[in-house]
Amino acid sequence: MRIEFSSSIREIDAADWDSVVRESGAPVFYEHAYLTAFEQAPLTDVEAFAYFVVRDGDKPVAVTPAYLQTAPDPLRRLHEAYPEARDQRALLSHAWHCYDTRVPATAEVLPRLLDAMIRTASIFKAQWCGFQNVRRGSDLSVALRANGLPARHLAARWATELGSYEHYLARLSQRARANLRRNERRAREAGVVTEVVGVEDAALDEITLLCDKTATRYDNGGFFSGPAFAKFVTALGDLAHVVEVRQHGRLVAAGVCLTDATRFHTWRCGVDYAVDGRYSPYGVLFAESIRLAIRLGRTTLEDGRGNASFKRRHGLHPCPLDATLIRI
To answer: Is the pTM value of this prediction over 0.85?
Structure first.
């Protein structure tokens, strides 16, 4: 086996890379097209890109991206777990915008990859190296701890399995089910319409402003780089679906959703609660996102991090996420 390093994803054959990603069942955040979009329009400050491909002969058997950053923590969760790493360079896999970190692999090659990442981190003069948003109890989590990387809790991501929409509703409490139905009825009465569009037809300038305002309201204003967001979403192409919710033509909610083979990711949203009528535009967006996931044949809804009370009430389940860093 040999490990290849590249400083740009565009130097790596997409079919080679994606063959490992899809065989391992890794999420959309690892697909070549997603990484290409992120490299073209980074959503946070990145000093250097690093991509590792492990080959057994000519066959790729493992891949992983990593990013050199001095401020890798736009939500401040990483530095709550590792205060000693604040304002220090770190080579991390994956970027914070991925909430399901994996090492796509078809062989037990993690020790080799770790060695390559640590050596690369040293060359970059980074003080830290490791992984963030690793699902607790996963094979990767167990393997990282076995290789000397301790785990510290970051947050939880939320997900649920999907069948039909009626089956989804049936799993909720009577109150939650009634609230969703009542909200949709009130929204219709208030003249609200929803539309699902591709990125080429989405009102990305409007959506960017709405998402930025929403993030600022929840003290997450540094999570996305506004100017890069529209460029990044456009570059995603068919990986992304945009849900627009409008009242009398005014955008009151929007979501950028991502898809892979089995999962539907409600990846970023914006909401304006100053609406005409007694309804929640976020509730409308959430219900339409579930319907879209089901129409697209995806069997798992991934609803990101945060907003725990709403997500628990609406049938999603928490998955604890850890960071596993070592000092170089």
So the answer is: yes
